[in-house]
Amino acid sequence: MILEAVDLVVRYARAKSRALDGVNMRVSDGTLYAVIGPNGSGKSTLMRALLGVIRPESGVARVGGVEISSWTRRALAKAVGAVPQAEPLAFPITVRDFVGMGRYPYLGPLRPEREEDRAAVNEAMDRCDIADLARRDVTTLSGGELQRVRIARALAQEPSALVLDEPTASLDLRHEMTIFRLLRSSADRGMTVLLITHHINLAARFCDRLLLLSAGQVAAEGSAREVFQEDTLADVYRWPVAVREDPVSGAPQVTPRQGPPASSTSSR
Amino acid sequence: MRRPLLALVLPAAAALAVLLSVRLGSVSLTTSEAVSALLGGGDAVHRVILLDLRLPRAILGLLVGGGLALAGAVFQALLRNPLAEPFILGISGGSAAGAVLVLALGLAAAGSALLPLAAFAGALVAILLVFRVAAATDRSLDVRVLLLAGVVVGSFFTAIIALILSLSEARAVRSAVLWMMGSLAGATWVSVGVVAIYTIPAALVLMGLARALNLMAVGEETASYLGTDVERVKRVAYGVASLVTAAGVAFAGIIGFVGLIVPHGIRLLAGPDLRFLLPLSFLAGAAFLTLADLAARLLLAPTEIPIGVITAFVGVPLFLVLLRRSMTG
Fold first, then answer.
1. Cβ of A70: how many Cβ atoms within 10 Å?
2. Which fold has domain B59-328?
3. Complex-level ipTM
4. What is the pLDDT of residues A84-132, one digit of tens each?
5. Torsion of CA B119, B122, B124, B130, to 10 degrees
6. For the domain A3-264, what is the CATH superfamily, name and number?
7. Using one digit for the tens of pLDDT, what is the confidence trace for B119-143?
8. How many C-beta atoms lie closer than 10 Å to residue A7's C-beta?
9. Around Cβ A238, how many Cβ atoms within 10 Å?
C-alpha cells in the first residue's frame, strides 16, 4: 500500500504561516520510512493530512494510488492502521477489548466478533508481546506496555500500511528497541510503515529511508547517509552536530556538539 | 459481572412499576381486578381509570424516563463531561420559553394541546440555534464549543422566560412554574403515541452508535483511524438525543435528575462501556421515572408532588450511596 503526498499544503484556521508548505513524499511497499524534524516542523500535520483527518489547502494525498478524499473511513481503516501521538486515556477496559477496537472497520456498529476477528486480535497481541496482559485494565498499564497495546490495536486492523506518531516517546531503551524491531519486521513482511520519530539515530539504524522536515518543507530525503549531512542537520535543528559511523550497527549516527554559548541559542 | 443481573432486574422493575402504577391511586385495585380491566372485562369505571388515565400515564413515564436517561448517557459521552445531562444544551430553556409564552399570552391553559406543540417548537429553536453556533466556528463540530454554545443559549432563554413571567398575571405565572417543574399528569394515548414515535426509533439509533462513541472516548483522531466517521456520529448523536429530549419535555415538562443520575448509577454498577450503558440506562430510567411518578401521586394524596422533587429526593441519596460504595471498592 503506497502512501503518497504531492505538493501538500496545509494551513490551520487563523494561522499566518503554512504548517505544511509543498511536501512531496512517496513511501513504497515493504518500506520502513521515518519522518524526522524539529518540534513544530509539521510531522504530525503530515500524518493527519495524509490520512484525511485534516483537509489540505492544496495538493493531494494518496493511499494505494487513490486520493484520500475518495476513501471511506471504514475502507481506509482496513488498509491503514494508525497510532496517533496522544490519546486521552480511555475508560477502564481490558487490554483484550482495547485491541479488539481494531476490528471496528470489519464489524461496524452491531456485528459480534467472529472467529477471524478473534484470530486477528490474538495474532496482533502475540506480535506485540502483550498476550499476558490480555485481562489487565488499560488505565493501569505502564508507558511501554500502553504503546505496545496501541500498536497491537492498529495491527488488529490487519492493514497493509501502518502509520505511527512517536511510538517510542518517553520509553526506555529496551522498549525503544522492541518497538523499532517490531516495525522493522513488519516492513520485512511487506507492510508499508511510516514512522514519525525524534529518535533519529534509531531511525537511521532501522529505517530504509528518511524524510527531514523543516518548517513545513522537505529539507532532505533519502537514505540515512544521504540525509545525515552535518550542515543540513545543524541548520534544520539549529544546533551544531557531528555525524559518525556507529561501531555497532554501521549506521550513521548524530551527536550534538557542545554548541554555541547559551546566550546565542535563543534567537537565530 | 453485574450486567446480566441488571439486564434481568431492570425490565422486571419496569414491569412492576407499571403494574403498581395502574393498581394504586385514589381508587386502589387488586392485581386481578387490574388485569381483568386491562383485558376489557371487570368494572366499567375501573376500565376507564385504568385504560384512559393510569396506563397511558405509566407508559408515558417509561418512555420519558427511558428517553431522558438514554439522552443523558449519550450527552455525557458526546461532550466528554460527567455533568452533562439532556437539558445542558439549552433544550429546557427553549421548550420552557415556548410553553411560558403561550401560557402568558393566554393562548393555552394547562392541559391544552397547544402547550406541548409550543414547548416542542421552543426546543427545536434552541437545538438549531446551538447547532448553528457550534458548527459555524469551523466545518467540524467541536464538542467544547457545542457545550459552551448550549449553556449560553440556555441562559438567554432563561432571561426571556424571566421577562415574560415578570409581565404576566399571577395565574399564568403559577401554570408556567408548575409546567416547568414537570409532570406526567397530562398523559393521554395521543401523547404516548407521539413520544413513542420519537423515542423508540431514536433509542435504537443511539444504541447503534455505542461502539463508535466508545472509540471516540479514546480520542476523535483515533476513532477516525479505526474507521469511524466522527463528524457524522457527533451530528447524529447530538440531533437524535436532542429530539428525544424535546419530545419528552413537550409532554412532561422539565424533569430533572433522571438524565444525570441514572446513567451515572448504571455506570457505577455496570461499567462505562456504552454498548451496555445505553440500553441499561434506558431501562433504569424507565423504571425509575414510573416509580417516581407513582410516589408523586401517592405520598401526599390527594395533592400531587411535582415529579422533579421526587426524582431528586430519591435519586440523590441513592446516587450518593452508589458513589460511596464504588469509592470504598
1. 11
2. ABC transporter involved in vitamin B12 uptake, BtuC (1.10.3470)
3. 0.92
4. 987 877 678 899 999 999 999 999 888 999 999 999 999 999 999 999 9
5. -140
6. P-loop containing nucleotide triphosphate hydrolases (3.40.50.300)
7. 889 989 998 898 888 876 556 778 8
8. 13
9. 14
Contact criterion met (CB < 8 Å) for A109 and B214: no
Map out the domains of chain B as residue ranges: 59-328
Q: Using the 8-state DSSP alphabet, how is residue A38 labeled? A: S
Give Rg (Cα) of chain A.
19
State how far the Cα of A148 lies from the Cα of B193, in Å rounded to an integer: 52
Instruction: Take residue B238 and report the three cell numbers written for it.
Output: 447530538
Compute the nearest-CA separation of A108 from chain B (Å). Answer: 8
Residue with cell 423504571: B287
Continuous segment of H or E residues that includes residue B301 = none
Q: Does B226 touch chain A (CB under 8 A)?
A: yes
Those of residues 297-326 in B touching chain A at CB distance below 8 A are none
Q: Which residue type occupies B193?
A: G
User: Is 70 exceeded by the pLDDT of residue B53?
Assistant: yes
Could you tell me the three cell numbers for B221?
A: 483522531
A37 closest CA partner among A17, A51, A23: A23
Tell me the C-alpha distance between B31 and B19, whole Å: 8
B273 at the A interface (CB within 8 A)?
yes
What's the pTM? 0.88
